Amino acid sequence: MLDFRSFQGSVGGERLKELLAVVDVGGGSARVALVSGEGEYAYFSSVRMSYSFPEDLMGVGMELDAEALWRSIASMINRSGMGGRVVGVGVTSQRYATVFTDREGKPVYAGPNTDARGLTVQHLIIEKVGRDLHRITGHWPPLLFMPARILWFKMERPDVYARISRFLNLNDWVTFKFCGEYATDLSNAAETVMFDVSRLEWSRRMLDELGVDVEQLPMVVSAGEVVGEVTEEASRETGIPEGTPVVMGGGDTQCAVLASKAKDDGDVCVVAGTTAPIQMVLSSPLIDPEMRIWTSCHVLPGRWVLESNAGVMGRLVEWFKEELAGKEMEEAEGKGLNPYDELFRMAEEAPVGAGGIMASMGPQVMDYSGGIRVFPPTISFPPFIMVGGTVTKGEVFRALLENMAFAVRGNCEQLQEVSGREVEELKVTGGLARSRFFLRLISDVTGLPVSSPLVEQGSSLGCAVCVAKGAGVYKSFDEALEGMVKEGESIHPSRERSKEYEELYSRWRRFYGKVVGLGF
What we know:
This protein is an alpha+beta fold. 38% of the residues lie in helices and 18% in strands. It has 19 helices and 22 strands. The strands form six sheets. It has a seven-stranded mixed β-sheet, sandwiched between helices. A hairpin with a 3-residue loop joins β2 (19-25) and β3. The longest helix is centred in the last third of the chain and has 27 residues, at 393-419.
């Protein structure tokens, strides 16, 4: 773990006396935030995540060093010098990242949510469980989830499997490092794909098929509940006082959805980060009969989420910035400008429709009914451009952003179809929500008003809300949301631009359908 980045906020006076410590382990970085009861960041630090690729897994397997990750987390908290002011601790992390431990809680295996070693064995789960997998767990196919990884170790590494005592989510293990207790919340339990999302209990069918005992899984509690206290060892490593309450957080996407104030039946949130999960909040579980999209639990008790994931977004922005706009980004930095602001300015200056460029690269309209499809990322140019016309980088980047917005609309339409509920407003959070142009683009393409919280670090803020409730800073989630989440400006669609995007969206859907047809 290298490349620490941190800042110390300007929160002062009485507000600094009580802080909430949040650990947020994403796919690209692990972050530590010390947040006040008013939702202001007194301290924020991050470290880039690093992964290894076992040679014998031919590029589909990925692992992480969990102990090194913990040392980085502890170091970030300790270096803040504010650990003594912490009154509650909580953890959120990338969903379906896993840590398998021995009897003492030491990692035997740890893998991120992109570890696809289950590719070679998932067919066995499908043969045994079939469509019941989606009916029970709300998820399909099993490729990236915990059951496929368990079965892989059982079949391919029986000697390693014999050492495994517990099967945990990544944030469950980090929580264990703080307090010595094995626990998970409903949102993370649902992402193991061994949990019955309707009955809210571990699925006996799944455990029997895998040969897993329920004692090997963490106890399931609601987010916002105290599960233990900071141990002497964890206190020594982090500087947080021994005995400080450790509060159950949740999955990073659901925490971000919470921080957008998406909590009522029918609320929809786009978490526009590295990828873009789009979740609709439900007051009762609903399973898509066509198995295209997922059902999970929200971090809020008595709430579920229906998810239609738009796929890669933030990663695509990073690709364009580094591979195609390097020169412009260097010039912007040389002038003291934010390179991301410059990148989105270039796109904003390009015309609606990006000068005729149509892109289908990364984002998707989720449909896993036939498994996870792989299709070539493409950018299509009109013939006159291909034979000698010119195109600006701003137009290309705008085409990529419009592609993202079209995918958001397609997934929202799918949520409407499955749920039978009209989407009336979109809440958008995540890194891309920092761009007002991107928010306006989403609004114009979907024809919906768009709102975004002032703090874009949605997953850490949502987890801080859980910690505030559990530590007694607030009596309820509603009180914590009102006290900690500050809403930004609401953006309404332009009637003129929305009309232009109607035809462009229809063209994109036809183009996207052809690209998906090339998949395998």
